[in-house]
Fold this protein.
Amino acid sequence: MANDTLTQPALTAKDFATDQEVRWCPGCGDYSILAQTQKVMPSLGIPKENIVIISGIGCSSRFPYYMNTYGMHSIHGRATAVASGLKAARPELSVWVVTGDGDSLSIGGNHTIHLLRRNFDINIMLFNNQIYGLTKGQYSPTSEEQKVTKSTPFGSIDHPFNPLALALGADASFIARTMDRDPKHLQEMLIRSNKHKGASFTEIYQNCNIFNDGAFEIFTEKSSKPLETIFLEQGKPLVFGAQQNKGIKLDGFKPVVVDLDNGSSKDDLWIHDERDFYKAQILTRLFDNPANEGHMPRPFGVFYETERACYEDVMRLQIEDVIATKGNGNLDKLLRGNETWTIQ
Amino acid sequence: MVRKEEILQDVVIKFAGDSGDGMQLTGSQFTNNTAMLGIDLATFPDFPAEIRAPQGTLPGVSGFQLRFSSDRVFTPGDACDILVAMNAAALKTNLISLKKGGKIIANTDGFDGKNLRLANYPEGENPLENNSLDNYEVTKIDVTKLTREALKEFTLGTKEKDRAKNMFVLGFLYWMYNRGMENTIQFLRDKFGKKDEILNSNIKALQAGYNYGDTTETFTTRYTVEKAKMQPGVYRSIMGNQAVAYGLIAASQKSGLPLFLGTYPITPASDILHELSRHKSFGVKTFQAEDEIAAITSAIGAAYGGNLGVTTTSGPGMALKAEAMGLAMMLEIPLLICNIQRGGPSTGLPTKTEQSDLLQAYYGRNGECPMPVVSASTPSDCFEAVYEAVRIAVQHMTPVIFLSDGYIANGAEPWKFPAAADLAPISVSFKKGLDEGETVLKPYQRDEKLVRPWAIPGTPGLEHRIGGLEKQDITGNVSYDPANHEHMVKTRQAKVDKIADYIPEQKLDSGPAKGKILVLGWGSTYGAIKSATAALQAEGYAVSHAHLRYVRPFPKNLGTILKSFDHVLIPEINNGQLIKIIRDVYLVDAKGYNKIMGVPITKTELVLKLREMLGGAN
């Protein structure tokens, strides 16, 4: 939604870079995400000092060191909880969580779902590379079954999470998916997630070229991308394919791929509606293993958005309500209590 | 009928019954009534582990011990003068704590065949009917029958009527101790204001109990305990956890920092959350997090944002918070961690008291992770101690551990509460902008206290990044430099050690400055140590008492005090924790007195131990 950007941003991407040497492996997808974030930030119209980026532990969690805003590199899995406390205390701040698949879905899974259900107005950027990078190559909760890694020499026996389905299950009010290799789309999703009032959960497919190279190749490479991905746009039919000649229609509750060159009409297709919770649930389930015969394309874009009261606002309102009825607290009255006696 | 009136100096009552019998309420009502008369007191509630264990069973017994006296009292008493037993199980569990010759007030309805069986009395044996209680003065009252009788015109069901039994007993005790009942009637009005039947039946039962004492000829004596000679002033009754909550609100008000509590329910700390959540008019934010870790990390987030960040917990929760405490220590931001200790290890004894976690507070984190520790010694002392803990946290930019325990958390005592204006100010300031010549914030630039600036988000020009990785001195940038790491570890230690320059010197609570034995305590052993040392001082022994509030760092003169005595005795409700640290720091051959039974050390036990150390004199 580039038309949302401010006319004359005072700051540039450079203003958001720090003097710290970026230390991700050369070729890491994180570089692109950092660059797109720095590009987007000046357009958000938020004073730099009001932006706070909180991360946990993992490769992605080095992110705050490279952003010239306020930032905290916290402990493994807890960025979402630190951010919740900060947002509750200081609702006026723009709080971002940068996290990875291990950080937010494994060790920090609990805090992630609770942040979403409480609907703090926080933007979660989940860098999903389907591997543990910082600990040098163990499978993660999003790794596919049978994946051979350092800790699974005979193949992983873990069933992976579907991050967006999980987020929606936790009543997230905004869920989106994007990828490191599509800078424009990534920027657009960051702008959307920031614009959303409430918890936004943006899954970013990110390539770890050292321990899991090419995990998302099929979605990102020019040759396969058109057939393997479907880019969601509000109010538009679900169309994909190099010639935009394939579509998805709903057969009852079941999504099916149809060929537009072969008798099917665009009018029969599923029209994307970000506000439709039931359709969003089906969309998140378009999660087939691309290696499987007859699999569906993987959706990217904003799956779902709704407005729901934010925790920090309700918390503040409750306090204001109490003060409006009872007046400001009086410390002497509190300490004295209801029953006293006097010793002469 | 001629009635005797007797004046007593010191009374210990234990209310004991099934956990559904309302004994905690009965006890606390009698406590408030006592306090209002200016009589000194101390209480000790004894909760069962289960919320509602099967009715009538031994594990279901709930007790409330109250000591009141016209002298100053510092403990809830070693043994009881009166035991109120609502059923057979209550008698069986508590008889051991009744003095020989003590009074038993027994609800005979609670001694029927079923109750006797549930309390594991042998078939056909009823302690109220055989001669097993000959050494006691037993008063049998069929409370159930009398309560139902008194409430016969009410339309309530039998079950509801029976719920007023405790009010009958309370009324009877009010008669016995010559009390008015206004405070309890007012309490009932506040509680049941809109439910007329329930309100009136409770008042009626209360009055029936009183009248029963008044009109039944078997009771010939009423007792009075006179006002204690306490410092003049206005008093109220206060419980430990309540005092913690008030101390936090007071510190928030006096420092100007909004209070944020991130916490997760855990016995016996939850009452702090309950209390604070009621005081939103002070702008208090209470956040019941999804777990102990989110509880502390949310408080870290709030503290980073410039709030007074607090988390409250008990032993198992402390264990879960350890990594986050390390983060707060590395970030060098103010944070208060309140540990209301309970019996450990693991889940341990949730409802019983223990000074279980001093070593955990000292050492229970990865790496070199020094954190100040402040401990409270009595229910009302929780207020001052927690206030001090906040002062240290915000003025020294450090997480601070505050230790209390189940005994003082739930215990009550009279409190000569302070006026808000008399509370010491807590000055704190955020960094407002870059200083002259600064081009970027140096988050780990330290002042003379070795304290770094508190620069909060929203302040233009001070954007900076901090985290749990080792950081370069001054700049705060990530650093793996070997010499820097050693320097930072030593600096963080020195910073905590330096707090000793900003806390009062240790004082002796009582006794001569030099002598034979110093009894050194911390936390909830205060009352027992004070009472035991006072008894021996009265006999002329050179026994002194020092009680630590500042457990880390220790007051600067503590070493000198320790070396002024031939012997040092350290009583603790654990297997010896402070003693290890004292021996380590001061190379003093301290002796321990340890009790690990989930209950406080008694004065009698300590007196015996001290006599033994004094060479068996007397």
Notes: Chain A has eleven helices and twelve strands. Residues 311-326 of chain A form the longest helix (16 residues). Chain A touches chain B through 57 residues (CB under 8 Å). The two ends of chain A are 75 Å apart (CA to CA).
